[in-house]
Every structure is written in C-alpha cells, then in structure tokens.
Write a structure and sequence with these properties.
- The protein is rod-shaped.
- It has a three-stranded antiparallel sheet. Strands 2-6-3 form a three-stranded mixed sheet, with no helix packed on it.
- The C terminus is likely disordered.
- Among the domains are: 82 residues; 61 residues, Head domain of nucleotide exchange factor GrpE (Nucleotide Exchange Factor Grpe, Chain A, domain 2, Roll), CATH 2.30.22.10.
- Helices cover 52% and strands 15% of the residues.
- The longest helix has 53 residues.
- With 233 residues, it is of the alpha+beta class.
Length: 233
Amino acid sequence: MSRNEGEQEPVVVRDRRRIDPETGERRTPAPNGDEAQVAESMSGTLDEEFGQADAPAEEPVDGASPEQGGESTGLQKQVDELTADLKRVTAEYANYRKRVERDRESVIAAAKASVAGDLLTVLDDLERAEAHGDLNGAFKAVADKLIGTLNSSGLEAFGAEGDEFDPSVHEAVQHTTSSEVSGPTVTTVMRRGYRFGERVLRPAMVAVTDYEADGETASEAGAGQSGESTEQE
C-alpha cells in the first residue's frame, strides 16, 4: 500500500551508544538484518579460510612423504658407501702392517746373518785349535759361549763324513771311487759349511767318493757277460 504524498516517513531512532546511560554497563548491540547477514557471511568466509589453513595435512599411508623417502634412500646409500670405504681402508692397513712386520723380520735376519758370516773365520780357527788340543781353560769357555750364542741366533753348521753329496750345499774339491759306497758320498770334510735359517752362508768344502766296482768284481762281471754272448752265438 502506497503512502499519500503528504504523509512523511516515520523517523526511527536507534540508540547506538555502547554505554547504557541508566545502568552504566556496556551494551551488546544487536545488529539489524543487513548487518547480521553481512556478519554471518564474513564469519563463514573467515571460518572457511582459516579452517582450511589450520587443518593438518594428510599424511601418506606409509607414514612418510615421498620427499622423506627419497632423502632416507640417499642417506642409506651414503652409509653403505662409507662402510665399504672403511672396510677397504681397514684391509689395506692390515696388509700394510703385515708387510711392515715381514720386512722388519727380514731386515733383522739379514743383519744377524751378516754378523754371523763375518765370524765364520773365527769359528774355523776355534775348530782347528780344538782339533790340535789347544782349546782349553778360559779360552774354551769363551769359545763355547760364542758358539752357543751364534747357534741360538739361528746359525747352523753342516757337513759331516758319510753325508750324501749335495752340490747345492757341498763344494767338492777331491773325487775318488770305491765299491764301499752306494753313491756319491762325503768322505772327508775340509771345511764346515754354515747356514742361517734357509740361507746358505758358506758351502762345505769336501772330498767326494763315487761308487765303482773293484777290479776282481769287474773282471768277473766282464767274464760273465762274454760267456753269455758266446752261448747266444
């Protein structure tokens, strides 16, 4: 229904004071329809925006994101490579220690062998003195200590009558034959040989006797062979 042109629109007065003049308390203004609609729409928009922002991100089913899985794989690869490097370095160090220890023992053995080799002529003199009966008293005691010390260090004498001749350790300076031996045999030792461990410091100087049938046996053997040849003819 339309109003007459002479009628005026009623005046609506809204008290927007925040403090009640009668009680002195703070008022809570009730919004009108438009304001309530705007406030509701703004509240919904804010709830939607902040609600989505505050909502926790969904986690993968396996408990780790693809980025975390790739990072874990890379770290495990680095650990495997470092472990392999450590094992290789450990093995190289163990081989180095063995090589150094082997070289050290070789140097010590060579030094001992060199000292023992320089004393071989002294041992020869002591042996000749003993053979002539001149090695006695305090001189013999010193000689026994020297020989004992060299033997305990690894020096070993070889070369004795009756040994089988071995050209690698014997130096033959005389050669005879006899039917009393079965093969090349050392019958006289002119100078002892010495070895230090597996190293031969000096070969033994010896006289060697080879097997050979005597004259009578050789004649019988020749006669037997000639008789056999006659019978065959």
